[in-house]
Every structure is written in C-alpha cells, then in structure tokens.
Design a protein that fits this description.
5 helices; 44% strand; mainly beta; six-stranded antiparallel β-sheet; 389 residues; Jelly Rolls; 2 domains
C-alpha cells in the first residue's frame, strides 16, 4: 500500500466523499500467515471483497528476495454458519472452499478444493496458495512458517493453479463457494458431499440475453457461487446491452395442466417489461445488481416484498404510479390507498405514489413495492439491489 494513503485518509477533502478507507486490516502484513517471521514480507497487489469474503493476490519475499506469487482467501462464514445451524450443528475450526481461477488466458483456468482454517486474529477462515513451498539452496524456511505448510494447511500449494499464479497480474477473476468441513468433530462423522451444508452465494445466478422469449429459463445462468473480479474499472454503453424480457414480472404463476396462469388482475400475455443487466456479479460489497428497467405504456411490474434485501429505484424517464405498502413510509399517508395483489402473499393495502424523472423509491427489507407506467412514453428507471447484513 502506498504510504501516501496515510495522509489522504485524514484529508478533509476525502472526508467529504470518503473515497479512501484506510487503514484497513486486509492490507496489514502482520495478519498474513508467513509474517509471523520477520524474514517474510508480502507485497499485496490487489484486494477484493464480497460480503464475508476477502481475496488477496500478490507476492511473497523471503530474506528480501522474491520467493513466490500467492493468493489468499478469507471467509467469515456468517451465511454458512446459519445454514449449518439450521441443521442443528455448528461450524468447526475448518471448512472447505471450492475455488476456480479464471485468468485472462482461459487455457490456464483451474479449480480445486481448498481447506480453510479459522484464525482468531482476523475472525475468519483463511488459507494461502503459493506457487512453491520448497526451500531454496541458500535459505530454508523458518520452523514457525514451515509448520503452517502442507497439502491441507494454511499455507499450501495446488499444482494445477501454478500457470495462473505464475502470471498473477493477469488473474482477473476467482469463483468461490464454501461448505462445512468433511469431518464433523469431535464425533469423527464423515460429512458426505450430498449431506454437506453449502454457502453458494444464496444459490446465486445472473441474467444474460440469450433469447428474446419473455421469462425464458435460457436467460438465467445458475452460477451457484460468488465471483471476485480483480478488474479495476469498466466503461459501458448501456444502449449496447441487449435487454432480457419478462412477462408479468413479480406476479404469481399457477401451472394448470401445463398452461401457465398468472394469478393477478394485472397479468396478461402482453404485459412484458425489459431489463438491461448492466453490472451483476462483478459488484463488490453486498450489491447484487445494477440494472435499467423499461416498462412500456400501460404495463406494470408486480408488487412484491423484499426480505433480506434492499432496493432503490431512480426514475430517469416517463411517468407512472409506484406502489408502496401502507405504513412503510409515514410521509405517504396522504396519498390514495388501493389494494394490490402481492406475489405469494395475497392482497395488501398500498399507497399510490406519482413518479417521474428524478423521483426515488427506496425499499428496505420487509417493505413492499411495485410500479406501473401511466404515461404516454416508456417508463424507465435504474435499480440497485443488495443484501442486508
């Protein structure tokens, strides 16, 4: 980390926008595995995070000379802890990480299982993957570092990862999922792959415009893992992104002898809206997606409830009516009340709120919303959705 950040972090100008958050534990070498010995030094080149996950990549130096490139995974395990607890168990001091490296050269992609070890210093499970663990002819590892090295140890080597690690700056993406340990202690019970509890990104998927057929399963890519992207910037032309089309989005669907029936007064075969998925899995923090929604004249996105997520709509074009459940925002009490069918929850009372360019609908976990185009041109808004803590 550039020492200049020490001064930037305390600058009054930075305090206005808080674009620099430093110091941060993940940049401090004393918390990495080999730094227990002063003979080892880390050059952390990039750090990326997603909720409970930190991934660091960079170089390890031994006695002042370059020794190896490395990749470090840290996982706090809050999501997995809840899944395991739901099965009347507890997380142990080890767990397993499925990891796939996606370098710029796709021919060097590789995946493996990595054993993570709980570290009380950082309150997370962690392991480091080095290119090599071998002694050099002129220098040997310190015993306290050597004791951490091995096939299932906090410092480990995965031979199939070496082509990607050798060009560490070109390692652009990492996919991750986490499961409970394969041995349940102290019982010694073997936890099979079928019985294991997983944190796979909330069964994460993303959307791609593979077909123009509305609500087609072909547009849903079932990743079931987390993505860590090391790219530093994106320059995007939203108009060049093909939209994904949805029929009667956020409305109940009933399967009647193979015929899909939308159980909502607003539903009809022509109620099709479009979403341009601008940024999805590349986002860090708890953000799930940033997309642009287009609702044609007279069409509607069904009312629905958010649980464990929050969402913000910012209207950019057109006019319409947004629906917010009665009581969600006391400032809306003076607006008209109507009944709306909520996806999966039946009829509820909502406030009708007029929206146009510059208006915002912000819905917290537990809140309900929907939106209708009542104008003469397409209604457009951008939406941000993210997990709550």
């Amino acid at each position: 980390m550039d020492p200049a950040f020490n001064q930037l972090q305390t600058s009054p100008w930075n305090e206005i926008f808080n674009v620099i958050f430093f110091p941060d534990r993940i940049y401090h070498a004393q918390y990495l595995n080999a730094s227990i010995s002063q003979r080892y030094r880390y050059n952390v080149q990039e750090v990326r995070s997603y909720v409970d996950i930190n991934v660091l990549k960079g170089e390890v130096y031994l006695d002042g000379e370059f020794y190896s490139n490395f990749l470090r995974v840290e996982y706090r395990g809050n999501r997995l802890r809840e899944v395991v607890r739901d099965r009347f168990k507890q997380l142990q001091n080890k767990l397993i990480c499925w990891i796939k490296l996606l370098p710029a050269d796709q021919g060097k992609s590789a995946e493996a299982r990595l054993k993570l070890h709980y570290c009380p210093n950082i309150g997370a499970y962690q392991a480091e993957i080095w290119e090599t663990l071998e002694n050099r002819p002129t220098s040997r590892h310190d015993l306290e570092v050597l004791m951490q090295m091995g096939a299932q140890s906090p410092i480990t080597r995965i031979p199939s990862f070496n082509p990607a690690l050798r060009e560490i700056k070109s390692l652009s993406k990492v996919e991750l999922a986490f499961r409970e340990n394969d041995i349940d202690l102290p019982s010694g019970y073997v936890v099979s792959e079928q019985d294991a509890a997983w944190d796979n990104g909330y069964m994460r998927s993303h959307q791609e415009p593979r077909t123009s057929d509305p609500s087609s399963d072909l547009n849903t890519i079932k990743d079931q893992n987390y993505l860590i992207a090391f790219q530093r910037g994106w320059f995007l032309d939203v108009s060049a992104i093909e939209p994904v089309r949805y029929r009667n989005a956020m409305m109940d669907v009933v399967n009647d002898n193979g015929t899909m029936i939308y159980d909502n007064p607003d539903a009809d075969p022509d109620n099709i809206i479009e979403m341009r998925w601008i940024v999805q899995r590349e986002l860090g923090g708890s953000m799930v997606f940033f997309h642009e929604v287009t609702i044609p004249v007279g069409k509607v996105e069904g009312t629905h409830q958010h649980v464990g997520t929050e969402e913000l709509y910012y209207i950019t074009e057109g006019e319409g009516i947004a629906y917010m459940r009665v009581g969600d925002d006391p400032a809306t009490d003076s607006f008209p009340t109507v009944q709306r069918k909520v996806m999966g929850l039946g009829m509820k009372d909502f406030k009708e709120l007029p929206v146009k360019s510059g208006r915002v609908i912000f819905t917290k976990s537990g809140g309900m919303h929907g939106i209708r185009n009542t104008g003469s041109v397409p209604l457009k808004f951008v939406a941000f959705l993210y997990h709550t803590a």
